[in-house]
């Protein structure tokens, strides 16, 4: 189980570095005012942020996911691996259930982390050097929200996060398992790494498509109150107002940048996790084989389990 946690941690860090600029664009597009839009689309948003705020503008708020997502991925892959061992049989249903359980547990960290990330990403919109910084960093952001709104404040959007993460992670692991089986990702395959990257990228896309409308509502609820005025009284009120003003297309706002981000991030994350586990478990197997030639083993070893 410790290997699952370590692999998830390393894979999470790699994924954040690759995907954070796309996430910044996604959040900006999701929460911009429809009456006075700053951005015409994904490419224009990228272009505007770089021109007005420099390349660093795309990495605003990275502290929160870099700290949080590495730990979250450690939890996700650790819980999923342990759940699969408890469930026993490697079936599509069990893959979904193990993924859903992992998604549920990590919400405790994911929700506050995404709240801080969203607030930081919206801070100083359109400014190269923000003159009025409300938050110094992600931790300061959470502390200020807690001091003002308490526990409920830092858990804003928790229900929508749960609604997104439970089925989202179920689809995530089910899709990855299905793609790796279909592609035949065997250790001796010379194209194994490419196949792992493709399977990981496609599983990320499948997961996001299955839950994206919920993510739009979550982002709007977490961004609500930034200017000092709360626009929505709850989830259903946010859904009603968004539909009334912008129509059904509101639930696809920012989807392009999300899918552009989903493929490289999840390709990197899953390939890193799988290769790390394969390498470490090969090492364990070698250690076990070597110990068999020793007259007195120091301690009993257990056979490693597969991902």
Describe the 3D structure.
- This protein is mostly helical and 307 residues long.
- Helix content is 72%, strand content 0%.
- The chain has 9 helices and no strands.
- It is globular, with a radius of gyration of 21 Å.
- The N and C termini lie close together (10 Å).
- It is a multi-pass membrane protein.
- It comes from Eleginops maclovinus (Patagonian blennie).
- Belongs to the mitochondrial carrier (TC 2.A.29) family.
Helix and strand element order: HHHHHHHHH
What portion of residues is helical? Answer: over 70%
What's the β-strand tally? 0
Mean pLDDT rating: 83
Radius of gyration: 21 Å
Morphology: globular
Total of helices:
9
Oligomer, anyone? Answer: single chain
Would you tell me the structural class of the helices and strands?
A: mainly alpha
Q: Uncertain segments of ≥5 residues (pLDDT<50)?
A: 288-307
Distance between the termini: 10 Å
Sheet-strand content, in percent, reads under 5%
The description of the largest β-sheet is: none
